[in-house]
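Email to the structure team, subject: Sdz-33 F-box domain-containing protein model.

Hi all, the expression group asked for a predicted structure before they design truncation constructs. Nothing fancy, just the tokens so they can compare against earlier work. One-line instruction: predict Sdz-33 F-box domain-containing protein, return tokens.
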Amino acid sequence: MVWKIVKSSLHRVLKAIRMCFWNIDTSIPKHKPFLILKLPLVPFKLVTEFMDSNEIIKLSMCSYRLEYFLRISKYKLKKLNVHLSDQRLRYDLTQSNNCSSIFFRKGKSEKQLESVSKMQQLCERYDSEDNTVLNIEYFSSNTVFDLYKCINALFSCSSVGWNFYLDQLSTETMMHYLNLLLAEKCTGFSFMRGSLSTPLLTELMDKIPVSKRLEIGSDIPIDFKHPNALKYYVARYHSGRWITLNDLKSIRNVGCVELKSTIFDCSDVNQFLNYWVNCEEDMLELLELNLQEGAIIDVFALTDQLITLRVEGASSSNFFIKAKNHKNRKFVLGHVEIGEGNSVGFTAWEAIGKKTRVFRILELLERKKELEEEISMIEKRENQSGFSDFSEEIRKKTEAYAELRRLKISLNEQDHVGYHFEI
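Reply from the structure team: attached below.
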């Protein structure tokens, strides 16, 4: 019954609320005021759940009592990203099906806020709304963290990232906020534009836990090294020319590594893939990189010495590989895709669901190669002088040939529509 009342009143509620926002839309006809604060908490939550994040923000600015009820409700966000420079502060709030932003512009004001403890303090500073962007005038450096605490208190969000623009932000200011945020539930940090010196980048990696996401969009010295650089669960480096092949081989149990520029060619990627196949531990779930400038994609160089299952009819060249030792590993199926330009992507998956079919074919191909190598070794020994145990070798070769024939029949019987391999 309560839900029917709430649903029938929703359209009127939203119009009435918009009328409260400083006469933003005077063309809306006047309605009898809807006393939203008179609603019990459950109907209040049902009504406000229909609002987007910016409407929640505006509602919280109307009164502290409204803000209090909204804080109790904790509206779900998919992502919250904060962008900080010297003159601007922007919040990107992503829900399941839409994204909105709050834009604070720094400026001179006779009533400069020194601290913010309530969203209502921003009421007089509301400037305008442009589609999905709220514009609020004036913020001071002293209020940045206060604003974050107030806005974050309204939402429940599992992904919170901060983006620092180093070409517009002093090192002292950046480090001040980073130290404060490390005590909060932030999941990732990005440092964009400008450049980072080796001492500063070292300090950042010493401070930021490897469980966080780290993105460095700034220039990085070519001789930079740090033991945590490729231990972050998600690491994105726009400048990755300082990373070596041995660095890639040292990766263990991370989620994603993205390198916009590198010193690698197809031979280096092939060495990494062969290392991944033979590694005893899980290395990573996703690797995206661009080859060195001027490098040409050579599929044969990429697949050298690898057992592959190629995907037919795809818009770009891509193939599957498998880990040899899969007893101690979770992500045992690898997928390589050649993208536009000189980009290469590698994804490691579990061999579950539909992927078990791909994994089974690769298992058979792997065994096929082992049998062929075994037969080749027997035949080499047969041709050597002084060979004595001829009957035993003949028996082994006969058994190997018999298993190889059965295996080829099994490969032909597999459902390999959409895939290509050599029998």
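The longest strand covers residues 88-94. Residues 311 and 419 are 5 Å apart (CA to CA). Ping us if the truncation boundaries need rechecking.
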